[in-house]
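Why do we bother with holo predictions? Because pocket geometry can differ from the apo form. Keep that in mind while you read this record for guanosine-5'-monophosphate.
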Amino acid sequence: MSDCIFCKIAAGEIPSVTLYEDEDFRVIFDIAPASKGHAVLLPKAHAANLFELPEETAAKAILVAKKVGAAMMEVFGCDGLNVLQNNGEAAGQTVFHYHMHLIPRYAGDGVGISWKTGSADMDALKVKAAEVGELIKKAERK
Ligand code: 5GP
Ligand code: ZN
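The structure, written out:
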């Protein structure tokens, strides 16, 4: 996509500090980090979000996250590492080219990745569970 910043960064057309690159992915340090060492993993081929990502790329992405994340844990000496990604504006996505955040965490760092807990209506959710199951079966029959 010609107007996508992450396409340009992934292709090396816009400079970035790259900590990992292969045929399909580039992992760069985030320009506005949540913590020291915050990185983002970008596929080189444009996909807006997880649901547009080809299955093969989605599977490879988690393997790259595992490999790069393990090295980051050692290099940054962090105590943990959040692997997360946002799909859609309502979920906090601001760049509409799929990416996975790798966020090193340090004990007591105060990085605010959290949510308020509510209560679950398990009877209503049983109906939703069945709907999800049916939809997946339908998609798999195609
Ligand atoms: P999102 O909110 O879409 O999940 O995350 C987008 C991330 O991309 C943010 O953490 C933001 O700081 C980062 N980002 C946006 N533009 C650039 C850029 O030009 N260079 C780099 N390195 N990171 C960027
Ligand atoms: Zn893109």
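The CA atoms of residues 29 and 39 lie 4 Å apart.
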